[in-house]
Amino acid sequence: MPEIPKAYEPGKIEKKWYDFWLKQGYFTPEVEQGKKPFVIIMPPPNVTGDLHLGHALTATLEDIMVRWHRMKGEPTLWLPGIDHAGIATQVVVERQLAKEGRTKEQVGREEFIRLTWEWADKSRAEIRHQHQILGASCDWSREKYTLDEGPSRAVRTAFVRLYGKGLIYRGERMINWCPRCRTALSDLEVEHKDIGGHLYYIRYPYTQGDGFVTVATTRPETFLGDTAVAVNPKDERYRNLVGCRVTLPVIDRDIPVIADEAVDASFGTGALKITPAHDPTDAEIAQRHDLPLIDTMNPDATMNENAGPYRGLERLACRDRVLADLKARGLLERIEPYSHSVGHCDRCQTMVEPRVSLQWFVRTQPLAGPAIGAVRDGRITIIPERFARIYFNWMENIRDWCISRQLWWGHRIPVWYCQDCAQVTASVDEPSACAQCRSSQLIQDPDVLDTWFSSALWTHSTLGWPDDSEDLRYFYPGSVMETAYDIIFFWVARMIMMGLENMGEIPFRTVYLHGLIRDESGEKMSRTKLRGKPMNPAQPISQYGVDALRFALTSGTTPGNDMNVGTDKFESGRNFVNKLWNASRFILQSLDAASAADQAVPILSGLPQMTEDRWIDSQLNRLVASVTGLMEEFQFGEAEQQIYEFVWSQFCDWYIEIAKIRLRSRSDPSPLPFLVATLEKSLRLLHPFMPFVTEELWQGLKQRLPGDDRMPASIIIAPYPVADEGAFAPDAERVMDSVVEIVRSIRNVRAQHRIVPGKWIEARIYADELLADLTAQAHIIGTAAKARPLAVLGRQERAPSQDRALVLVLKEAEVVLPLAGMVDRLAEERRLVKEREETRARIVQLEARLRDGAFLSKAPSHAVEREQEKLAVLEDKLQRLERELSQLGSASAEG
Q1: How distant, in Å, are the alpha carbons of 322, 621, 680, 737, 867 from that of 730?
Q2: Which of 163, 158, 168 is nearest to 457 (CA)?
Q3: Is residue 885 very low, low, confident or very high in pLDDT (cuts 50, 70, 90)?
């Protein structure tokens, strides 16, 4: 047999096993009619560069689910893909051009798209490679890209069908506009930030007579587009002004004073400047009062011809000039500090301009109704449940979706305009002539679709829709949609709407929302923001390995909760991998030693079992039952944590150490079969979480076992463990819990009193019900605790201590350690008194709880019984502590 390396070197084994899995075709499922498949369609990463730790979390969680279901024998499809990410990718490529001193306008649309394809192709290859490094067991033969011909045709088909139903329309509406990206944004693409600004009080003179009305605004540069001043009709201060006219300063345009209930009389002076072209609330007021809209800005946020003397100025430079002019004319009354929320482009962080613009929209309310019903009636489950309430609130108040973007990169809107008769044609394929007048003078709409429009079709466009493909029939709907909670509206809600619209069926049965991976300062991982690149998974992988990274990102996490990443998590993952490796190495070396001595490893069936063997087997099967339940409830972080605790503590720290004692003494029966069986099952249990190290160790174990040809070729297709309730052994667990408590308490005393590791100390153990069992474990207790001589006696044999001794009162036993010269009697008395008082306080708490009528009436019976059992244990412990204190006092008096 090949020698097992002393240290685990992940870099040497990870690619080997991933290539093996790929070559064997384990990731590619077959269509097995009659078998229900497990399906995850990967949330496609943006093709904007390397993956970050947020993507690594997504890939790890999905891979955990996929490997688990594959091991359960289900046809399992994890379909990978990548998103062209319209605005995000265009921003990245524009920045690349800027470094070369060029703009997209200078290179032209065709060349810009060619350059972006070059960038995207390189990025796609790197993203695929990174996913493979992470161990993602995706079916790469089915990989999709949102700009592939299939998904692109699906986008055009969906658009044309919605347009034909009147669910897509073109109109002038108030939208969010990014002056840097020079495109419309949906409400969800705007990030609101609290900004410390100012409130400017400006005087608008009356057109007739003396005096003025003062308005307060945060944006004085927009007053050039004012078409009215509005007051609340219930505001007595301005009742006589309604119907009057005032003059806009500087440009001297007369505007009316109107009354509208939307005006907040408590804001500023209670008089509101109405700028319909630059504020959504103002636009609604203007519509009610039939006011004109005057747009004063160009698409790049410079002032246009409607700005009069300020034409050509950038908006903030215009603000400064306006304020100076108002002050010079005595019309700037005062300035006050004011904090308010301002929208910014989520991609480039530029301040967004509300702007009336001609755009394409999806009429969402007819689509939202069925999507609300699918979650409300339980066809789709959202985990964690609290996000369902957020989903309902957003969907029930949904606004029409602006889907056109003034970009060059993306799906071109499939609409053509006839230059001769003005006919609008929406078509899946490019028309050669106008359907109405047969003219060939057709021009396609220059805009592209919002990236999220193609993403909304992802669950079915990836499987062949609109064609009736075999994959679509078998793998739709998906099983789980796993993604971050921050895109539940961007993506999840829209997938549900479009899945129901196009397929007539829900797109998936479960939505699993994970929390966000944040850096050490709490910032969300996002590549394209100006603050710079977040951590690439390659960094921790090179230092700690893939399995350690996966463990760090998922262990102990819960659905929907954020987590900050630090080196301590990576180190913890690496330490666990090393612990597992060292324990497995010991077992494999023990197998090699047995083989060299011609000692066949017997099978477990029919073997006499020692108490510790039954204990570890029972604990393992309880773990399997618990992990299975947790996995079914999507509590992957807790499942992984429980496996970690079992492997680290019960198996490595206790059972293996006990087994070493037995192997050294050549006792019969050998613990080796239980070491092997526990390791093998633990590796299968852990495989979905840590695929590489478990495959390496499982293969090493497989080579050393008789009948290895009957085992699967890889752990990836080995059956996931199933709990055997017949192996549960509460009697053995009770004994070994006591053994562990005894050894641990003696070790704690040794550490507390700094007893050198090699020194043996005397110990006496007193027990009642477990006397025989603890006597049988005396050799293990003595060796593990370095206690010799060791006596295990009945409690009735306990006599008052005649020597200086430290007494440990445990759950099932008392341990007496004669430690003359190591601890004084006064210190021991203080320790026992403190423990007695803590025990009394806990008893008082439990007694109060068991007298609480509310608790007794609402708590399940097993919970009440558990509290009663705790009380009985504590009362017994208190009696024994009192006895020890009494004996300590007697010995002190005799001394």
Answers
A1: 83, 12, 23, 10, 19
A2: 158
A3: confident
Which two tokens mark 243?
A: 């119907």
**C-beta of residue 678 within 8 angstroms of C-beta of residue 655:** yes
Instruction: Report the DSSP pairing between strands 228-231 and 805-809.
Output: unpaired
What is the DSSP secondary structure assignment for residue 895, as one 8-state letter?
Answer: -
Q: What is the pLDDT of residue 527?
A: 42
CA dist 606 → 288, 391, 603, 656, 858 (Å): 87, 56, 8, 22, 47
Number of Cβ within 10 Å of residue 865's Cβ equals 11
Q: What is the pLDDT of residues 709-736, one digit of tens each?
A: 789 999 999 999 999 999 999 999 999 9
Strand order across the beta sheet in which 183-185 lies: 183-185, 168-178, 353-362, 401-402
Q: What does the H/E/C string look like for 485-514?
A: HHHHHHHHHHHHHHHHHHHCCCCEEEEEEE
Q: Is the pLDDT of residue 790 over 60?
A: yes
Buried b / exposed e over 792-822, threshold 16 CB at 10 Å, is bbeeeebeebeebbbbbbbebbbbbbebeeb
* Predicted model pTM: 0.84
* Angle between helical axes of 493-503 and 149-164 (0-180°, round to 10): 80
- Does residue 121 register a pLDDT over 70? yes
Contact, 807 vs 779, CB < 8 A? no
Question: What end-to-end distance do the CA atoms of the chain give, in Å?
Answer: 64
The residues that bridge with 205 in the sheet, in sequence order, are 212
Contact 312, 303 (CB under 8 A): yes
Reported as type and span, the H/E element at residue 404 is strand 404-405
Indicate if the pLDDT at residue 893 is higher than 60: no
Q: Kindly give, in sequence order, each residue whose CB lies less than 8 Å from that of residue 847, ignoring residues fewer than 6 positions away.
A: 871
CA distances from 798 to 189, 666, 743 (A): 76, 34, 20
Q: Which residues of 377-415 are buried (b: 16+ CB within 10 A; e: fewer)?
A: eeebebbbeebbeebeeebeebebbbbbbbbbbbbbbbb
Two structure tokens written together for 199? 């409130």
Provide the token pair at 239: 């009742």
- Kindly tell me if the per-residue pLDDT of 477 is higher than 60: yes
pLDDT (tens digit, 9 = 90+) per residue, 138-147?
999 999 999 9
Summarised one tens digit per residue, pLDDT across range 513-565 is: 998 887 666 666 554 343 445 678 999 999 999 999 999 999 888 898 888 77
Identity of residue 287: Q
Question: What letter does residue 669 receive in the DSSP assignment?
Answer: S
- Determine the Cα–Cα distance for residues 182 and 99; give it in Å rounded to an integer: 19
Q: What mean pLDDT, rounded, does the chain reach?
A: 90
pLDDT in the model for residue 629? 96
Within 13 Å, how many C-alpha atoms sit on residue 792's CB side?
A: 21
3-state secondary structure 135-194: CCCCCHHHCEECCCHHHHHHHHHHHHHHHHCCCEEEEEEEEEEECCCCEEECHHHEEEEE
Which phi and psi (to 5°) does residue 184 adopt? -70, 155
SS3 517: strand
From the number of C-beta atoms within 10 Å of its C-beta (0-12, 13-18, 19+), residue 844 rates as exposed
Cβ atoms within 10 Å of 57's Cβ, excluding its own: 26
Q: Radius of gyration of the chain from Cα atoms?
A: 36
Average pLDDT over residues 743-770: 89
451, 407 Cβ separation under 8 angstroms? no
Residue 478 predicted with pLDDT over 60: yes
At residue 291 the predicted structure's pLDDT band, cuts being 50, 70 and 90, is very high
pLDDT at 780 over 50: yes
Q: Which residues of 320-356 are buried (b: 16+ CB within 10 A; e: fewer)?
A: ebbbeebeeeebbbeeeeeeeebbbbbbbbbbbbbbb
pLDDT at 895 over 50: no
Helix (H, G, I), strand (E, B) or coil at 685: helix
d(CA 561, CA 566): 16
